[in-house]
Amino acid sequence: MQLLQSPAVRIALSVAIATGLYGLSFGALSVAAGLDLLQTMALSLLLFSGGSQFAFIGVVAGGGSGLSAMSAAALLGIRNGVYGMQVNVLLRPPRWRKLPMAHLTIDESVATATGQTDPQEQRRGFWAAGIGVFVLWNLFTLVGALAGNALGDPATWGLDGAAVAAFLGLLWPRIRAREPAAIAVVCAVVTLIAVPLVPPGVPILIAAVVAAVLGLSGLGPATEGLEPDVDPYPDGAAGEPDGARSGVARQSEGAGRSEGAGGFGVALQSGVPRQPGVPRQSGGREDA
Q1: Which of 9, 6, 7, 39 is nearest to 131 (CA)?
Q2: What share of the chain is helix, strand, coil (3-state, %, to 5)?
Q3: Long-range pairs for 150-159 at CB < 8 Å and ≥24 separation?
Q4: What membrane topology was assigned to this protein in its record (predicted)?
């Protein structure tokens, strides 16, 4: 019961339920596309990536070859590799955990983990969301595949809306300025326009490209935007074991905190704290 008091675990469970229910649609659509029960379950157990799975059965249902289906699924799965690099830096798992974590690195687990500021909550969020989605996704895939035609048209159940609502619940509280809110709205509109025009899973890639272009265009001051997740190196530089930093580095870190709310990207000029009332020298210029 104590574990359920964790904010990250509570968020992860709600996301897992919403996403797992969407597995009903996949199970029913997979069987309707011509895959049998074993093939359907193999996709959910081994591929375990909703966008890639829907892309795979979409190509199969449209009469495409197995190679085309696998290519479409692999294209959409590229984002999970990018997630993996972020998770490796954020959580720094021991080597023996990397294989199971790689399989559980999906949109939901990464979003839940990066939404936390405490390192322990990040780990709990990742594992709770990853395992929760894996169990419920496969369970409801099985139910959908077995029920088949008895479910009718899965689109009428609105289960895809539940998954979207879960992601919106993760994202919206972290938007604290007009510029990122505007980018989010633009990406949502682009996604809605792209849905009827491109294969399943591709709209999210298009929206990601749009978000990257708008973000790199320099909209708004650097101090505005999403609420920061966490320092990607909370205990030291990448690859350093915990506690490996020198006392000078820790002193510099403390000095940086004493400077006030400077935001990200404020480089320390020296490891020695500045005396109150004494301006800091920076390249022949005094900081106000």
Answers
A1: 9
A2: 65, 0, 30
A3: 151/24, 151/28, 154/24, 154/25, 154/28, 154/29, 155/25, 157/24, 157/25, 159/21, 159/22, 159/24, 159/25
A4: Multi-pass membrane protein
Count of C-beta atoms within a 10 Å radius of residue 16: 24
Cα three-residue angle 185-207-193, rounded to 5 degrees? 75
Question: What's the confidence (pLDDT) of residue 65?
Answer: 84
Residues 55 and 164 grouped into a single domain: yes
- Can you give the residue range of the structural domain that contains 107? 3-172
pLDDT of residue 122: 94
**Residue 126 domain-assigned (yes or no):** yes
pLDDT digits (tens, 9 = 90+) for 36-61: 999 999 999 999 998 889 889 888 88
Number of domains present in the structure of the chain:
2
What CA–CA distance (Å, rounded) separates 138 from 122?
24
For the entire predicted model, the pTM comes to 0.62
Which three-class secondary structure state does DSSP give residue 144? helix
Radius of gyration of the chain (CA): 23
Region 113-134: what's the mean pLDDT? Answer: 94
Domain boundary among 193, 209, 226: 226
Tell me the sheet residues that pair with 175.
Answer: 226
Give the range among 23-27, 71-75, 250-254 with minimum mean pLDDT. Answer: 250-254
**Is residue 233 a part of any domain in this protein?**
no
Tokens of 199: 């294969």
